[in-house]
């Protein structure tokens, strides 16, 4: 009887210690196809995705910033456009391929 009571108390005490960490839900939401959270910084709000992108109000309105695949695709597309403009079509072609791969990863997440 004493062993059974001690075992029950041990199981219950372990359950109360471990339960909060097992039942804790991450407070993640979805916004524009990305999972993350809204955060308030000063008087403004911004969306931080789990992939490193941030959606916040910039000088030209609401924009995505960050290091995720979508941002990488945008940087590669801009560089390819600049290479084409300055007379480097081979470099632009390589960047177009890289941008297409990055854009596919952007939509895949």
Number of strands: 5
Distance between the termini: 55 Å
Tell me about the biggest sheet?
Answer: 5 strands, antiparallel
What best-fitting shape do the alpha-carbon axes yield?
Answer: elongated
- Estimate percent helicity: 40-55%
Question: H/E element string?
Answer: HEEEEEHH
Question: How many domains make up the coordinates?
Answer: 2
Quaternary organisation of the protein chains: single chain
**Helix/strand-derived class?**
alpha+beta
The fraction of residues assigned to DSSP E strands is 25-35%
Mean of residue pLDDT?
79
Contiguous low-pLDDT stretches (5 residues minimum) are none
Rg calculated over all Cα atoms: 24 Å
Topology:
Elements: H1 2-23, E1 29-31, E2 34-41, E3 44-49, E4 53-58, E5 61-66, H2 69-85, H3 89-108
Antiparallel strand pairs: 1-2, 2-3, 3-4, 4-5
Helix pairs in contact: 2-3
What does this structure look like?
- By secondary structure, the chain is α+β, with helices and mostly antiparallel strands.
- The protein folds into two domains: 26-66, no CATH class; 68-109.
- It is built from three helices and five strands; from the N terminus they run αβββββαα.
- The chain has helices at 2-23, 69-85, 89-108, and strands at 29-31, 34-41, 44-49, 53-58, 61-66.
- Strands 1-2-3-4-5 form a five-stranded antiparallel beta sheet.
- Strand 2 (34-41) and strand 3 (44-49) form a beta hairpin.
- The longest helix is centred in the N-terminal third of the chain and has 22 residues, at 2-23.
- The radius of gyration is 24 Å and the shape is elongated.
- The N and C termini lie far apart (55 Å).
- The mean pLDDT is 79.
């Amino acid at each position: 009887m004493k062993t059974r009571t001690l075992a029950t108390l041990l199981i219950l005490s372990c359950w109360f210690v471990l339960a909060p960490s097992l039942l804790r839900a991450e407070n993640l939401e979805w916004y524009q196809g990305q999972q993350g959270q809204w955060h308030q910084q000063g008087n403004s709000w911004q969306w931080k995705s789990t992939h490193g992108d941030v959606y916040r109000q910039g000088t030209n309105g609401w924009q995505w910033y960050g290091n995720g695949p979508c941002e990488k695709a945008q940087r590669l597309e801009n560089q390819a456009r600049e290479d084409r403009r300055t007379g480097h079509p081979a470099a632009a072609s390589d960047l177009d391929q890289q941008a297409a791969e990055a854009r596919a990863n952007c939509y895949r997440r």
